[in-house]
Inverse folding.
């Protein structure tokens, strides 16, 4: 039996992401920060918020929010003390991990193209060329075997960029869940102390118990 | 001297349960409201029978929305 080898070129469309996928991730990141930040603000009602070109700031004008940094840290935020013109008291610049991910979405060339396409409600697709090698029986013309020699095109960097972002997002979501719990605990602790309670924490398996005691005469 | 006690339990899913001990009247509810305001969304509030006898020990169960 004699055979011949033929090469076939095929163009295929690769769907990198669905439009709602990346927009949902962006929304989720923003909401996660807002939810934790709102709780932090409610825990320290005497503090003000200031948004400047340098970033988001929280101002403790009266200097009475002594546990502000600690509670913010439990919520997963980092506060860096800074000096702002015309601002009295202590000013802190807020940093949160969600900022880095949002920045990634808004600065990465590949991710940006995906977002633009998602905003138009379109799935992001890239054309790739697939080279296929076919072995054909000379006499009958019957295909004996077929193998792909691989894809060539531009989809790889897009897929890589999205996978990297997705990994970072998954990691963020895991940490975010414990940040919400830790922040809530710190918030209860701060409030309880302000109300005159002594605070004791006990870990009971998967459950944390906060015991608050106040003696009244 | 009287001891006022609140026990707050938080599980791995962020659900919170809070219970007061040694408080009378509506104090227990007020105290829990002061402590848990904006911390969590209340999903159930259980009052012990003593609450209706003016000798009150109340239990509030609140669930934190994650």
């Amino acid at each position: 039996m004699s055979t011949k080898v033929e090469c076939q070129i095929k163009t295929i469309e690769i769907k990198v992401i669905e439009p709602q996928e990346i927009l949902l991730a962006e929304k989720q990141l923003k909401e996660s920060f807002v939810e934790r930040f709102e709780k932090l603000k409610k825990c320290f009602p005497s503090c003000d918020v200031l948004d400047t070109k340098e970033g988001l700031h929280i101002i403790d004008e009266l200097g009475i929010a002594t546990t502000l940094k600690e509670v913010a840290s439990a919520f997963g935020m980092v506060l860096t003390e800074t000096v702002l013109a015309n601002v009295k008291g202590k000013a802190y610049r807020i940093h949160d991990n969600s900022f880095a991910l949002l920045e990634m979405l808004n600065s990465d060339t590949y991710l940006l193209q995906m977002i633009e396409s998602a905003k138009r409600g379109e799935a992001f697709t890239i054309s790739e060329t697939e080279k296929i090698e076919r072995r054909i029986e000379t006499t009958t013309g019957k295909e004996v075997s077929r193998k792909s020699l691989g894809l060539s095109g531009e989809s790889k960097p897009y897929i890589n960029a999205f996978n990297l972002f997705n990994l970072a997002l998954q990691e963020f979501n895991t940490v975010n869940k414990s940040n919400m719990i830790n922040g809530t605990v710190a918030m209860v602790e701060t409030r309880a102390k302000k109300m005159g309670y002594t605070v004791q924490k006990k870990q009971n398996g998967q459950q944390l118990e906060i015991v608050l005691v106040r003696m009244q005469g | 001297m009287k001891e006022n006690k609140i026990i707050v339990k938080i599980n791995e899913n962020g659900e919170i349960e809070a219970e007061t001990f040694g408080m009378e009247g509506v104090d227990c509810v007020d105290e829990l409201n002061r402590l848990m305001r904006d911390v969590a969304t209340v999903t159930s509030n259980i009052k012990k029978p003593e609450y209706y006898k003016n000798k009150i020990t109340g239990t509030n169960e609140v669930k934190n929305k994650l």
In short: The first helix of chain A runs from residue 19 to 43. Chain A has a mean pLDDT of 90. Chain A touches chain B at residues 39, 42-43, 177, 180-181, 184-185, 187-188, 191-192, 195, 197, 204, 206-217 (CB under 8 Å).
